[in-house]
Amino acid sequence: MFLTYEEAVAWIHARLRLGIKPGLTRMEWMMDRLGHPEENIHSVHIGGTNGKGSTVTFLRSILEEQGYSVGTFTSPYFEQFNERISVNGKPISNDDIVHLVNVIKPLSDELEQTELGGPTEFEVITAMSLYYFGRCNPVDVVLYEVGLGGRFDSTNIISPLLSIITSIGLDHTAILGDTHEKIAFEKAGIIKRDVPIVTAVHQPGALQVIKKKACEENASCFVLGEQFHVMNHQSLANGEKFDWKMDDKEWISLQTTMIGKHQIENASLAIMASLLLNDTIQFVIDPSSIQRGVKKAYWPGRFEVISNAPTVIIDGAHNEEGVHTLVREAKKRYHDKEIHIVFAALRDKKLDGMIQELDEIASQITFVSFNFPRAATSKELYSISMSNNKKENMDWEESVQDKLFHLRENQVLIITGSLYFLAEVKPKLLTLLGAM
User: Fold this and answer.
1) Which residues contact residue 138 at a Cβ distance below 8 angstroms, ignoring those fewer than 6 apart?
2) At 393, is the pLDDT very low, low, confident or very high (cuts 50, 70, 90)?
3) What's the pLDDT tens digit per position in 313-365?
């Protein structure tokens, strides 16, 4: 039995040694032993390559504006481990973590002795969240973000009111497949019988895979650009403005402080999802709640402007699709400035494509290392880059501090890459900026 929060979290993180073990058998075993808490939860399931966290945030904000209590299960955490399980945006307490670990650990120990083997870190945290929302602290709805893929992801144990697939990109190809269609097949595994599916997937082949699965499951399919539309998009100094339309429903001049064209797509998914929830007997959502919710939504580390003088941005562009989105937005907003980039990433990503795009917009690019088991070294990243003005430094703190204090008015500093890296950077960055 664990008595302290530090012991409990250390035990959870120690499960990382088991790696990724796709499949639902261990989750089914644990849910059965816990009396199936997942059956007590009203949920929405959100999968996709990029945009999951932002879509969760938009939908949570809309539901909160209507007065509902909203649980979320997301990954990775950004500032505090407890963020993984939150209620109305507030992470659960340290005492809650200790209690949940003491519930799940005996099951983990027992599973270790079976042919199924012990649960992974992600399976443990998923089980903790299901027990928390199903037994300890029931809420009106829980938004469950898929960890990896969908079909064999541990969150796929739930029976949601609706499902969302945000986008498809070539990430985790060693596990999910090396084409958009193969990855779409895995993502489409969250589509359930008679449960509506909302998506912003745009690649024809991938979208066809999703539509086929929806048809097989008799699931109504709502596609951005087909059943609902974003129009009249304008980029603002501190966000985006757009109109949203579906049949006779229309919102004019919606605004969000979350920056980028991709964010209005994520917002549009949340709006469509809220309308579908409104069609159920559990929810009533007013148009004004949608408008306020979209405007108030905030999700850290996604093209987040940390400072305007000097201009400093952090962005969790952790795969090729994310980097492409970052580059597009940086070109649009800072085409008249020198762009300096500090980049760190995980070794198992498609680094060559990511670095090639960053090289193209960077006046100078610095590659750094950070403390994480799967992190690439600064030298590995440096060797891939073809930039004529590149640096590498094992010490990311030294690089960030040096960049920050030498940044001129016509320059922009973008710190990007792994979200695990940004989680380390942001507190230090805020301290440095506060001292300037």
Assistant:
1) 40, 41
2) very high
3) 999 998 898 999 999 999 999 999 999 999 999 998 889 999 999 999 999 99
Q: Give 154's DSSP letter.
A: G
Asked if 107 and 130 touch (Cβ cutoff 8 Å), the reply is: no
Q: Of how many residues is the chain composed?
A: 436
pLDDT at 435 over 80: no
* Phi, psi dihedrals of residue 212, rounded to the nearest 5°: -65, -45
Span 304-435 CATH architecture:
Alpha-Beta Complex (3.90)
- Paired sense of beta strands 70-73 and 141-145, if any: parallel
Buried b (16+ CB within 10 A) or exposed e, 77-88: bbeebbbbbbbe
According to CATH, the superfamily of the domain at 5-296 is Mur-like, catalytic domain (3.40.1190.10)
> What whole-number distance in Å separates Cα of residue 103 and Cα of residue 144?
21
Same fold, 5-296 and 304-435: no
Long-range contacts of 432-436 (CB under 8 A, 24+ apart): 432/400, 432/401, 432/404, 433/306, 433/307, 433/312, 433/404, 436/404, 436/405
3 state SS of 347: coil
DSSP state of 22: -
CA–CA dist 139, 49 (Å, integer):
27
- Angle in degrees, CA 81, 49, 61, rounded to 5: 60
Cα separation of the two ends of the chain: 46
- β-bridge pairing 338-344 and 249-256: unpaired
Pairwise CA distance, residues 68 & 58, whole Å = 14
Which segments within 34-176 are labelled E, that is strand? Answer: 43-47, 70-73, 85-87, 90-91, 141-145, 162-165
Domain ranges within the chain, ordered by starting residue: 5-296, 304-435
C-beta of residue 299 within 8 angstroms of C-beta of residue 53 = yes
